[in-house]
Write a structure and sequence with these properties.
It contains four helices and nine strands. With 200 residues, the chain is α+β, with helices and mostly antiparallel strands. The chain has one domain: Jelly Rolls (Sandwich). The termini are far apart.
Length: 200
């Protein structure tokens, strides 16, 4: 992914193939999220309050802009920062100090969410998945051209333990301390995330 990181630097410096802020609204489709809830399975804590949100085909990738740059601009405009370009790890892990958003910029992948006995979800370019802190995830397969853009709410604390690398009780306590973000990564202050997660 070194090439993608180099492209990101050049695009930020030059603006090449990056959408302008006024173009972003036209690149976001109005989608109702698929909601998935996962319980603590004794190995993967998941999140006791917030569900995973899957926005299918929510971002327009029309070839005019770099697809990764489209996601980066949308997420950053809604306060989701520290974006990266890469794939999805092929081992089960979760985050205890932050929520995470994954935007599929290119290709497709089959990902198991919720732990070893969780749900298999097929993701494709244009999809966005918002994982609340604690949600187990693991890539099972992917196209060779898979490219994912990830980001986090501002002031998050990143970690990526596997289930056997963290004290379960400490992990659960840390997850409970991660509050609802101020914005939906796709739709900002008006997005369904705030209604669904604040309601929890």
């Amino acid at each position: 992914m070194l090439i993608e990181q180099a492209k990101k630097v050049v695009e930020k410096l030059t603006g090449l193939r990056r959408p302008a802020r006024e173009e972003l609204a036209a690149l976001i489709r109005n989608r109702k999220p698929v909601i998935r809830r996962f319980g603590d399975d004794g190995e993967t804590p998941n999140n006791p309050a917030f569900p995973l949100l899957h926005y299918r085909n929510a971002v327009v990738l029309n070839g005019t802009h770099d697809p990764a740059a489209v996601f980066e601009q949308i997420l950053a405009s809604n306060g989701w920062k520290d974006s990266w370009r890469d794939g999805i790890y092929d081992f089960l892990h979760f985050h205890t100090g932050t929520h995470e958003v994954l935007g599929i910029a290119r290709g497709c992948a089959a990902v198991r969410f919720g732990g070893a006995n969780g749900q298999l979800v097929n993701l494709k370019a244009g999809d966005v998945v918002v994982l609340p802190a604690g949600t187990g995830h693991c890539r099972l397969s992917a196209s060779r051209n898979l490219l994912v853009v990830g980001a986090y709410p501002a002031h998050s604390r990143y970690d990526e333990p596997r289930p056997d690398q963290v004290d379960s009780e400490k992990a659960r306590a840390a997850i409970l301390r991660v509050k609802c973000p101020w914005t939906d990564p796709l739709y900002g202050r008006e997005g369904p995330l705030l209604r669904l997660w604040n309601g929890a």
